[in-house]
Amino acid sequence: MTNIDHITTAPTHTSPVYQGLRSRLRRNAAVALAAGSGLTLIWMLTGGGTFWPVWAWIGLGGALAADAGLRLALRTPPGMPRWIAIGTVACAVLAGVEIAVWAFAGGGYFWPMWALLILAAALIVRTRAVASA
What we know:
133 residues, mainly alpha
């Protein structure tokens, strides 16, 4: 199996690819939880103040969301629908991270709307291009 085969073939629940994704997601979640908890503990032991570990939590959460989303996207039938699912996951994760950064940075002017509009437009163009092919 080549490195790209997992994108072009449909994994089953018993396939090594599917089992590998499941175990990787569990392992990554445990590492993210340990890292985030460690940073939160350091924050608490150094006197608290502004909750700076939130930035690490956002990054760790984005990485886990991308990992879980990829796992779901790989369940899509092989071919172009799978590539659309992977693109949708990427756009959704980027949108979530940008909105979280905006919210934890204090809100105000909703600047993520520009990136969200560009992501949505790119996703629509890609989907239509694939549908017409």
